[in-house]
Design goal:
The structure holds two protein chains of two kinds. Chain A has one domain (12-98): Glutaredoxin (3-Layer(aba) Sandwich). Chain A is 34% helix and 21% strand. Chain A is built from three helices and five strands, in the order ββαβαββα. In chain A, a hairpin with a 3-residue loop joins β4 and β5 (85-88). Chain A starts with 11 loop residues before the first strand and ends with a helix. The relative contact order of chain A is 0.23. Chain B is mainly alpha-helical. Chain B folds into two domains: 9-122, Ferredoxin thioredoxin reductase catalytic beta subunit (Ferredoxin Thioredoxin Reductase, Alpha-Beta Complex); 125-170, Single Sheet (Rubrerythrin, domain 2), CATH 2.20.28. In chain B, strands 4-3-5 form a three-stranded antiparallel sheet, with no helix packed on it. Chain B starts with 8 loop residues before the first helix and ends with a strand. The chains are: A alpha+beta, B mainly alpha.
Chain lengths: 100, 170
């Protein structure tokens, strides 16, 4: 993802079975984010993730604006599927069902 | 910013041990899942190194201590979450029911106000007064400890929250 500043934000893409556009907004220190990231990996679905706390200030602010569009609390993990469905927190059954 | 230096296993063990001891002394419990809890303790150390305060590992810090006072661990939301969900937001602290396996962990929704509503809550000033008291009463925003004295203590004797996290209650 390219921002006006020209800095490429570190969004990591993980290849797998296509289940729509799956984006995980996470924190590098958050254990529930880690569990969500591991669940996505174990499900083998194509997805991307970003550690918001590691972003430079400007990119962090722009990324938080994206998170807030789907999750007004701005909490983590926030999982966004096809820019429509949003699952907040490590809700394993709900995530499995949404990506089945 | 770049990823900060990871704390050593010894540093994690030392803080884990201290938090466990302090929790039990105050009637609280750390999560008995050792690997899980060590990850959270590691997050607290990373945040302390990064921001200068032990911000909740499961919340995004603002880099401003005064704006994040409510999410310095133990956070202002720990006790209501323990009562309602048997765990705090990140599940570092759990209830006796979880500790003994009578209750299972479940996701705890974020109790902290949204960014657009946060300032109003933090600026809320208590105006309750009762005439004739010899001393003001201070309340620890983390654990509810009350004390009647000229100023709040340096550190809460129950939960170890620092002085600036006390509010004037009466």
């Amino acid at each position: 993802m390219q921002y006006r500043s020209g800095i490429t934000v570190e969004i990591v893409h993980v290849s797998g079975r296509t289940r729509g556009k799956v984006m995980l907004y996470a924190l590098s220190t958050c254990v529930w984010c880690k569990k969500t990231k591991e669940l996505l990996a174990s499900l083998g679905v194509d997805h991307s993730y970003v550690f918001v706390d590691l972003l430079p200030e400007k990119e962090m602010e722009e990324t938080m604006n994206q998170v807030l569009r789907f999750n007004p609390k701005g909490s983590f993990p926030t999982l966004v599927i096809d820019e429509r469905r949003c699952i907040v927190g490590f809700r394993e059954a709900e995530i499995r069902e949404a990506l089945a | 910013m770049t990823a900060p230096r990871m704390p050593t296993e010894d540093e994690v063990s030392a803080l884990h041990e201290r938090l466990h001891r302090e929790a039990e002394e105050g009637g609280y419990h750390l999560n008995p899942d050792r690997a899980f809890t060590r990850d959270l303790v590691r997050g607290l150390l990373v945040n302390t190194a990064r921001y200068g305060y032990a911000s909740c590992p499961c919340r995004l810090a603002s880099r401003s201590r005064s704006k994040d006072l409510d999410i310095i661990c133990p956070c202002d939301y720990r006790d209501p979450d323990l009562t309602e969900y048997d765990a705090c937001y990140c599940a570092l602290y759990v209830s006796g029911a979880i500790l003994t396996g009578k209750q299972q962990l479940r996701p705890v929704p974020e109790r902290r106000p949204s960014p657009d509503q946060r300032q109003a809550v933090i600026r809320e000033v208590r105006t309750t007064t009762i005439g004739g008291l010899a001393y003001p009463v201070w309340r620890c925003r983390v654990c509810g400890y009350l004390c009647a004295r000229k100023d709040p203590p340096e550190v809460c004797p129950v939960c170890k929250a620092t002085k600036e996290r006390f509010e004037r209650f009466i």
